Amino acid sequence: MKPPGVPPAELADLTRAEDRISFLYLERSVIHRDSNAITATDDRGVIHIPAATISVLLLGPGTSITHQAILLLADHGATAVWVGERGVRYYAHGRSLASSSRLLIAQADAVSHRSKRLAVARTMYAMRFPGEDTGNLSMQQLRGKEGARVRRIYRENAQRTGVPWNQREYDKADFASGDPINQALSAAHTCLYGIVHAVIVALGAAPGLGFIHTGHERAFVYDIADLYKAEITIPIAFDLIAEGSTEISADTRRRVRDRVHDGALLERCVRDIRMLLLRPESTGPIEDDEDAVHLWDDKGYEVDAGRNYADVGDVDF
C-alpha cells in the first residue's frame, strides 16, 4: 500500500544544486506548502517558491513554518537552517543538502592524517597570503606569520578610521568589559561565525572537525571564518566605532547583515569549503547522483549493501 500524500521526488528528478536558488532567506512570515511550492505569507500577501528551486532555506526572525513545508523541502533534497537576522546567527538546522557522506568522509580523512591536515591548514593560510609561498612553513611559522598579518590589519584600520587601538582583548563571559572597538570586533565575528556555521551544516560537513582550530564543537567554523575577517568584519567594526555607535552589539549585527545581503559571501564560503576538502573536485553539484549505501571492508574498498553475505563462498565464520 502506498503511503498517503504526495510521493517524494525521485533522486534523478531533483534539480541540481547549481540550478537552484542557493540560499533563500525569509523572515517575518508564515511558511506553508501549496502543492509542490513553498508559500511565504506576510502582510503584503503570498508568494510561491517552487521547492525544487531551493537549496537552503534560511529561516530568520519572525518566521513560522509548518510540518508540511518542512516535509516538502526534505522530499526535494533541500534543507532549512534557523538563523538570526540575515543569517548572522546560527541556531539549528535540518538535513544537509548532501545525499552522500562524501564531503564528511573527505573532511574526516584529511583531519585524521597529519600530512593531509597540514596540507589543508597550509592552504588556508595561503589563502590569506596571496602570491606568497607557504608550502614549506611549519605550523608554528604560519601562526607567527598570521599573527603579524592580523596585527598589521588592526593597525591599518585604526589609522584609516582614527579609532584608538591597543590590542585584541576580550572576555567571552563579559562582553561589556571590553573597550568599544573590542566589543564591536567580538559582535562582528560572532555574526560571521553564524553565517559560516549555517553553510557548513547545509553542505553536510562537520563544524567540529577543524584543521587549524581544534577541540571545540565549532573548530571548523572558526577555521573558515578566519578567511574573511580581514575583508569583512574587522573593517566593519572599526567603521562603526569611528561613527560613534552607542548600541554596538545591535548596530554591528545590522552592519554585517547589510554587508552580506547580496549572498556573495555564502557562495564564496561554499566554494572555499569544497576546494579545501574535495581538492581537486571543488566544482559540480553539492549532492551526488547516486543515493546508495555501501559496506566498508577492512581491505580498503566498499562492497554493496542490501545483500546477505552469508551466501558468499569465501566468508569464514
Characterize the structure shown.
This protein has about 325 residues and is an alpha/beta fold. The protein is about 40% helix and about 15% strand. The chain contains 9 helices and 10 strands. It has helices spanning about 65-75, 100-110, 115-130, 140-160, 180-205, 220-225, 235-240, 250-260, 265-280, and strands spanning about 20-25, 30-35, 35-40, 45-50, 55-60, 65, 80-85, 90-95, 295, 300-305. The strands form 3 sheets. The chain has a 4-stranded mixed sheet with strand order 1-5-7-8, with helices on both faces. Helix 2 packs across helix 3 and helix 7 (about 235-240) crosses helix 8. The two termini are about 40 Å apart. Its cofactor is Mg(2+); Mn(2+). This is CRISPR-associated endonuclease Cas1.
Helix content: 25-40%
Largest sheet properties: 4 strands, mixed
Q: State the oligomer.
A: single chain
Rg over alpha carbons: 23 Å
Q: Please report the number of helical segments.
A: 9
Q: Which whole number gives the mean pLDDT?
A: 81
Strand content bin: 5-15%
Reading side by side through the largest sheet, how are the strands ordered?
1-5-7-8
Q: What is the SS-derived class?
A: alpha/beta
SSE string: EEEEEEHEEHHHHHHHHEE
Shape: flat
Low-pLDDT parts are 1-21, 282-289
End-to-end C-alpha gap? 39 Å
What is the strand tally? 10
